[in-house]
Every structure is written in structure tokens, then in C-alpha cells.
Amino acid sequence: MTSVSTESQRTALSWKLLPAVLVSLSGVALFGVGNDPLGYGGLALGLATAAFIDRELTRHLALIAAGMLIISMVALNADLSIQHMVLMGSALALAVLVPWVVSRFVYGEKIIKFPVNTGRKWPLIARLYLIGVVLLGYFILPFYLISTGVYQNWPDPSDPTTFWRLFLGVNAVGIWDELFFICTTFALLRRHFPDWLANILQAVIFSSFLWEIGYQAWGPLLTFPFALLQGYTFKLTKSLTYVVTVHLTFDFVLFLALVHAHNRYWLPIFLY
After folding, report:
1. CA 53/CA 14 separation, integer angstroms
2. Per-residue pLDDT, 2
3. What is the mean pLDDT of residues 80-86?
């Protein structure tokens, strides 16, 4: 009896995986390849397939798809003009707000949460991990940015205005990544799939988004593992505060590396 039940659960999981994979891969088309028709088609096919398989899965994939649709409406680049920053910032905010509002007030669920004050102290290993993040960023990011030339995807922060706008933009996007990909996408997918599988699905969309932002060339070799680690860290800590701290720590090193890449005599603290 147990064997039959287990086989039935595996079959159900396999069927549910198909629409989830379609939605996840649509992120590659929308953000990685820049093929909107293929991306929108993948989203539509994923939702249509889910409708024949599982009602709750359809509702949750629709929330993820809504956020992806919203952010696909604006150019995801490092244009630091006020107009673009406002437009992109508004789209990113709506991509988080719309799924949360629908989930909380239409579906009557509390799956999407943003746990800031958990009341738990960070253990020693969590603090040491932050040091590890700094060291990894220090050794990897300058080499990656300069050897590939992808630092040019971000503007030269030589003047004070661009310098501070770049600092603001890098940090704002870093916070948003955790709000949408971890607290929203990962949280919703965990309702239907094992944590490891849900984490892979969100990491595909996460790293595709970062590709369009500017992490190109062999950037996915960095961003995909990073996305997986952020999902796993959130699973362990259940703390938005901690995963945001990890992300912003890494992004601070990124910011310094970008300044260094554009102006090699500034911040001569890097080896490359």
C-alpha cells in the first residue's frame, strides 16, 4: 500500500513539474535571451498546462508569472537616468506587491512573507559566512568583471552623481532580488515541490534576470550558484534580514569592483 502511494505521489509530482519548468524556463527566454514571444508563450503554456493538473499550482504559478510579466515590461539595465530609475523601480516594486496582495487578500494565504525581525541571533557560522562572502567577492568579482569586459554594462561612476546612483541602484536591486526570487518565487514553489527542486526552479529565473541586468559572459557560473545558496540560506535561517545582508555584503564588494574596473587607479585594493 505504501509503495503504491509513493508511486502515485511521484507521478503527481512529475506532472506538476512540467508547467513549473515551463514557467521557469520562460525566464531564460524573457531575460536571458530577450525573446519576448517565446517567453510569453512559455508562461502561457505553463499556466495552461497547470490548469489541467492542479488548481493550487495554477494559482501560485500565476503569481510568479505576474511578477515576471511586470518586470519584462521595462528594460533591465544599468541606465541611471532619473526617468529609468523611477520606471524600473516602480516595475520592480509592483512585481513584488502584486503577488503579495493577490496571495494575501484574494487567495487568503500567508505563503509570501518577508520575515525581518525573527528574534533569533545569528550563530557564529552565519557571521563567518559573511566573511567568506566578502573574500569570495574580493577574489572573483574584479577578475570576472575586467577579464570579460562586462563591467562596461554598468556606467562609469567617475562623477559623484553617477557614483551614488550606481551605489543606490546596486543595493536596491539586491534587496529586490531577495523579495521576489526568494520570499515570493521560492516560497510559492516550495508548496508544491521539494525544497531542492523549488530552489533550482527559482535559481533559473534568478540568474536569467541577473544576465539581463549585466552579469553576462560566464556570469551564470557565479549567479546560478549564488541564487541556489540564497534559497538554501533562507530555508535554514527563515530570515529575510540575513539573506539581504549576505546579498548586500556581496553587492558592496561588487560596487567597489565596478569602481575599480572603470578607474584602475581608484581603490587600488584589488589584486586584478
Report:
1. 10
2. 60
3. 95
- For 248, other C-beta atoms within 10 Å of its C-beta total 17
Q: Say how far apart CA 249 and CA 246 lie, in whole Å.
A: 5
Question: Within a 10 A sphere around the Cβ of 182, how many other Cβ atoms?
Answer: 24
User: What amino acid is encoded at 267 in this protein?
Assistant: L
**DSSP letter string, 171-233:** HHHHHHHIIIIIIIIIHHHTTTS-HHHHHHHHHHHHHHHHHHHT--TTTHHHHHHHHHHHHHH
Centroid of chain to Cα 13: 24
3-state secondary structure at position 33: helix
Distance CA 43, CA 25 (A): 9
Counting every residue written for the chain, the total comes to 272
First to last CA, the chain: 61
Say how many C-beta atoms besides its own lie within 10 A of residue 87's C-beta: 15
Joined together, the cell numbers standing for residue 237 give: 535561517
C-alpha to C-alpha distance for 35 and 57, rounded to whole angstroms: 25
1: pLDDT strictly greater than 60 = no
What are the backbone angles phi and psi of residue 248, rounded to the nearest 5°? -70, -30
pLDDT at 85: 96
At residue 194, does pLDDT exceed 60? yes
